[in-house]
Amino acid sequence: MKKIAFIIPPTVEILDLAGPLQVFTEAKFYGFEIELEFYSYTAHTVSNSGLAFGKISHFSEAELKEGDYIFMPGMSFDYVDSIAFRAEKEFFNWLKVQSSKKVLVCSVCNGAFALAEAGLLNDTECTTHWRRIDQLKSRFPKAKVLTDVLFKKSNNIYTSAGISSGIDLALFILEELKGAFFTHKVARGLVVYYRRNDNHTQKSIYLDYRNHIHPKIHEVQDHMINNLSGDNSVEELADLVAMSPRNLSRVFKEKTGTTIIEYLTLLRIEFAKTLVNNPEYTIEYIAAQCGFKTARQLQRILKSNS
């Protein structure tokens, strides 16, 4: 079972910690088997907002293996800029050792400074909160610091811009582990929808067109995703959410930027592209599962979208 170890440093920024943690907690609710662990390197930890933590295990007690994750959240920059922070050589060496074991090391906000102190950002594309971009560049000139991105994956190092972008990073990692549809369910449960930076260009129909909070439109979208072989007529969908067909069509386009038919077609194409990878499935079977009228129709659509 994979582990995700959250480091809780002095003056930790609460949302930097809680955002990614809640993503993986929600994933566990949906059945993802993963262990969440918490470590610190000080005897007493108090957050930047004054919230104190109870007893937390020392990082040296962590037993991590290849494929596990470490999350390093951001802290008060006064602390990051202090001699006390730079003196945590034992912790930085530990981070470096974990990375050499192919544990994936992730930072939120100025947690990137801890990764940089460990030498993990040398010749590595990375990012941090926009307020701290210049300081990261100046303090660690070997780091390839990027601006205007929410997060960046570079080999086994993940860095994010901070605060709410830690949620985006966690959702990105979750999609790598469990796929787009599972991540869609988690994002839906959190009432937050996945955003991408310029370096993640692959589209996910399960997550796109969801950047709204209209509950009835989400219900319609979920119904279509889970019932692709059905009719999914505007009339049927309208009955589902007690709206008139005309009003549903109008509100759907207003909230998603696309029509019901266009969205349904994209869903069916995406599912078909997944099924065609299974050599045991005939094109006729795939067409039926995806709601296409004939195998020929599916072949024509796949060809035009290749």
Per DSSP E runs of 2 or more residues, the count of β-strands stands at: 9
Q: What is the total number of structural domains? A: 2
- From the coordinates shown, what is the CATH architecture of the largest domain? 3-Layer(aba) Sandwich
Q: Determine the mean pLDDT.
A: 91
Radius of gyration: 23 Å
Q: Percent of residues in beta strands?
A: 5-15%
Structure description:
This protein is of the alpha/beta class and 306 residues long. The protein has 2 domains: 2-190, Class I glutamine amidotransferase (GATase) domain (Rossmann fold); 215-304, Homeodomain-like (Arc Repressor Mutant, subunit A). Helix content is 45%, strand content 12%. It has helices spanning 14-29, 77-80, 83-86, 89-100, 112-117, 133-139, 165-178, 180-190, 215-226, 234-240, 245-256, 260-275, 283-290, 295-304; strands at 2-7, 34-40, 57-58, 69-72, 104-108, 125-126, 144-145, 151-154, 157-160. Helix 1 (14-29) packs parallel to helix 7, helix 1 packs across helix 8 (180-190) and helix 12 packs antiparallel against helix 13 (283-290). The chain is elongated, with a radius of gyration of 23 Å. Residues 197-202 have low confidence and may be disordered.
Name a few traits of the molecule.
two-stranded parallel sheet; 306 residues; 12% strand; alpha/beta; elongated; Rossmann fold
What secondary-structure arrangement, pairings included, does this model have?
Layout: E1 2-7, H1 14-29, E2 34-40, E3 57-58, E4 69-72, H2 77-80, H3 83-86, H4 89-100, E5 104-108, H5 112-117, E6 125-126, H6 133-139, E7 144-145, E8 151-154, E9 157-160, H7 165-178, H8 180-190, H9 215-226, H10 234-240, H11 245-256, H12 260-275, H13 283-290, H14 295-304
Parallel strand pairs: 1-2, 1-4, 2-3, 4-5, 5-9, 6-7
Antiparallel strand pairs: 8-9
